[in-house]
User: Fold this.
Amino acid sequence: MRGGAMKILAIGLLSLSLWLLREAISVCEVRAAEAGKSQMRVSFGSTAGSFAPLWVAKDKGFFNDLGLNVEVIYARSVTGIQAMLAGETQAAYTGCTEIMTSRKSGSDLSVIGSSADYNISLLS
Assistant:
């Protein structure tokens, strides 16, 4: 791909990621409201650039536009899953592998969306 096509692809992927994140937050908003919480905590599992949609949404005030007070917390992938299972966070922006491992152990976690069209953990 040439420079222009790459830029369009990158913008498209960022837009899709932000849309998926918004949809995930909508589901979490319902959970937070059911729990009577005014603040929502979302963990992220890495400082890699693939987590940028979460940071952009926080920095640009997209959560505030939806009426959400979101606290973004860094927690390594497994720790983020454990925090969500313990009710300390309402969502985790993390890898699919950690969620599937948790489900295999009996948790009821679900994948709401993905910002990648493949499972990065499957690449070697």
